[in-house]
Every structure is written in C-alpha cells, then in structure tokens.
Design a protein that fits this description.
- There is one protein chain.
- The chain is built from two helices and no strands.
- It has about 50 residues and is an all-alpha fold.
- The protein is elongated and about 40 Å long.
Length: about 50
C-alpha cells in the first residue's frame, strides 16, 4: 500500500486538477476533474484534522 499523502500534498493535487480543468473544452471531462478536486479537498481536510 502506498504511503498516505499529507494535507499539503492533497492541496497541491487540488491545484493541479483545477488548473487542468479551467482550460478544458470538454464539459464532461472538466466536471470530472472538478469532482476529483472536491474529493481531494475532503481528503486534505481529514489529513489536516487527524493527529499525527
């Protein structure tokens, strides 16, 4: 199992996904990228809140 990402790494992934989604001409793909960004935001919040 790969190591868990830190909250900072999750936020970086969110930035990358949004940057990819902004110029995306395909609305379905753009929506998918933004949906994945939402999921990474949730992961980042859990990582930030978890002790250790």
């Amino acid at each position: 199992m790969p190591p868990l990402r830190t909250a900072q790494q999750c936020r970086q992934k969110v930035s990358e996904l949004i940057a990819e989604a902004v110029p995306e001409p395909d609305a379905v793909r753009r929506e998918g990228l933004l949906g994945m960004a939402d999921q990474w935001i949730k992961v980042a919040r859990r990582r930030h809140q978890s002790p250790g």
